[in-house]
Write a structure and sequence with these properties.
Blueprint (H helix, E strand, L loop, with lengths): L5 H12 L14 E5 L2 E4 L4 E4 L14 H10 L11 H13 L5 E5 L2 H16 L3 E5 L34 H4 L2 E4 L4 H11 L3 E6 L12 H12 L2 E5 L11 H6 L5 E4 L10 E5 L1 H4 L4 H4 L15 H14 L4 H22 L5 E5 L2 E5 L8 H5 L3 H13 L2 E2 L13 H17 L3
Parallel strand pairs: 3-13, 5-6, 5-7, 7-8, 8-9
Antiparallel strand pairs: 1-2, 2-3, 4-10, 9-10, 11-12
Helix pairs in contact: 2-11, 3-11, 6-7, 12-15, 14-15
The protein binds pyridoxal-5'-phosphate.
Amino acid sequence: MNRIDTQAEWIERAKAVLPAAGFGNFDPGIVIREGKGSRVWDENGNEYVDYLIGSGPMLLGHGNEEVEEAVLSQIPKGMTFFANNALGIELAEEICRAVPCAEQLRYVSTGGEADMYAMRLARAYTGREKILKFEGGYHGMSAEAQMSLAPSKLVNFPQAVPDSAGIPEAVRDSVWAAPFNDVDFLRSFMNEHGNDIAGIIVEPLQRIIPPAPGFLEAVREECDKYGVILIFDEVVTGFRFAYGGAQELYGVTPDVATLGKVIGGGFPLAAIVGREDIMRHFDKGAVGAENWLMQLGTLSGNPVASIAGLKTLEILRRPGTYEKLRQLGASLMNMFSDHLSKAGTAHQIVGDETLFDIVFTNKPVNNYRDVLNADATTNSKFNDVLRSNQVFKSPGKTYPSLALTEDDLSITENAISKAAQAISP
Ligand SMILES: Cc1ncc(COP(=O)(O)O)c(C=O)c1O
């Protein structure tokens, strides 16, 4: 333990200059000093096994040496150009090879931007205005995406409610919300309004909730029936669930998808990918000024991010990578489940081996409302005890990384056992 509480000093400094004392992302009560492999250290030198992994991008672990070497090779050659560069073109080629729906690609810097443009693209292509999303689905911070993201006041579907101040009425009126995994609702809603909808945006696995069998297929079918653009938000699932993302794993191909996190290898890079006849709306020469979707961004296709992404994807392509990730995830899921069951605590392990979490309820979890009705106090206590026993994770997600070792798993098991005892009824 440090005699000087360096972290407390940083927290005080943050309070002075940052609203809510933070970047808006994560608990401002911890300040991370560094990360290496599967571990992170806070400013007091406390070491943790990291299951936050930068909210997803660090799938290979922190400071992967091959990625670091690639990045360092680019830095002396220039950090950003605004103009096309070979690395960005090569990465676009690789993504288009990997992701089933990707015929063409446009870069942006964040997943939220990619989602915003994907929704606009659906409008440009169809000439319609409405977007249908699923309550609790996270698609970044644009005005549309902030509709029914995490509502505490529940209203009847398809009304969507704003989760942020400052959202204009016109945007509120342009978004409808549906319950995730409810095929009956979807079909009857589409029957009535399908011809008004430009796009349906969906996380193929919503936060941690898997699609019920047949749900994504039904969404695909309804989109085809009414000429609606299907957008998969694969910012999280892209290159994580499989090399070709959730669309490869689940076997349902959207018209457009958004990618972020893993493709930038820890640097700011995201993308909209999709069918050529839709993506051509980014090309004024091809569609004319009226139909053109104007899009540019200072850091789009940044060469440092692109080389980090290229090397990350090269490593992910190696044989056995996804099998290993799934095995690690399955071991962790079993660990949580065994200790919580032994302690007699009602819980569900919800998600995929590559991304999951524990929901404290005895009921099945199929949508946002099921998570909202779970025991948040127990969740918070459970996560606090995990953190005080060297396990660093978000209270809503557990992200396994490929850098996890046997030693990490045994530290994790010890923490889970203590946390399970602490919340035992
Ligand atoms: C499914 C999903 N979409 C979009 C985003 C937004 O990405 P970014 O934070 O890069 O804007 C996130 C971020 O966590 C996400 O989980």
